[in-house]
Amino acid sequence: MVDQPVFTAVSTSARQLHTLLRCIAFSQRAEVQITRSGIRFSVEEARVVQGLTFLDKALFSTFNLNLDEDQHSLPPFSISIVALLETLQIFGIAETSASRNPYGGFSSSYGNAFTAPALALGGTCRITYQHAGAPLTITIQEGSVTTTCEMNTYDAHDAYEDDGGIPLDRNALCLKAIMRSTWLHDAITELSGTNPTALMLNASNRSTPYFSLEGEGGPFGDSTVEFMPESKNDPTPSGTRGKKRPLITETFSVVAPSGSHGRIRQRYKFDMLKRAGRAMALATKVSVRQDQQGVLSLQFMIDLGDGANNGARRDDTDAAAAPLSPGSVAFVDFRFVPLLGDEEGSDSDADTGEEFDVQELNNVSP
């Protein structure tokens, strides 16, 4: 008698899984943790940049995890994310339409039924994990053709509870902004033209520039993208201190440390910021946060376009007006350690309270 696997999940859209995992595929291996609420993937490089994505159980038509009552998750393990992506696209998953969607995410134009993107929407993906330490089995089925791949699993380098993530102190944030992700993507693309070595984040709630990004150290000189305030001519309300925000932001808060004259300035390695480029281009919205230690978090909300598993796809106008259901969006989070002088800072403290701020982003209209 064959033992029941400890974990089984089935998705009717391998494309969704491939898209989310490719956003963080900037390193060879990913650490995986299977919990009662979904699957968490984490990729890091040199302890200065980390990419996280969470595949919520709502993305799967079947999600079975056999744990004891006192257990919340399986022991973490690592796999080759490169091999996983190759498996998911074994039937030729194509890129989404190249036409630009001003709200981010997938374009509503998929061509006719014979175009590659349309054909790529089919296929189911079954993920099976027999027991801790066993291979992770991926089964892709397209029509009458079935392909099964057994991927070796490895011990995780660090348990998430101990030292598995770059810490972000949510109780000591000095910058918090929510904006359309395409604005941030355009700014980073513009700065890339001078090939900078560092990115300076400059923010204030008292004086201009309220929010700007500066590329420094490039062979063609420095460059700056400044996000303009709401209005240069708006009068200050009587009895209140005028606090403006950049026009393109929906939420903007700066709590600068004492003695900094209400302004924060922090540098990051530019090449590391580019690791988030794919998520930046696909996302609908982004939450930009920085804590008092300088750790930067870019959390992207990606509208999956075709719902959780029903194949129904909303057009761009619906995406702007209607609230997003839990299964129709996913979140990808990047963490960056700041540059300290000429050295890259590194913090080894644990982040035991890591969660995706799903409710916060969902409450802000795109």
TrEMBL record:
GO terms for cellular component: checkpoint clamp complex. Residues 342-366 are annotated as: Disordered. Its main location: nucleus. Coiled coil: none annotated. It is found in: Nucleus. Keywords: DNA damage, DNA repair, Nucleus. One of its GO terms (biological process) is DNA repair. Pfam families: Rad1. Belongs to the rad1 family. This is Cell cycle checkpoint protein.
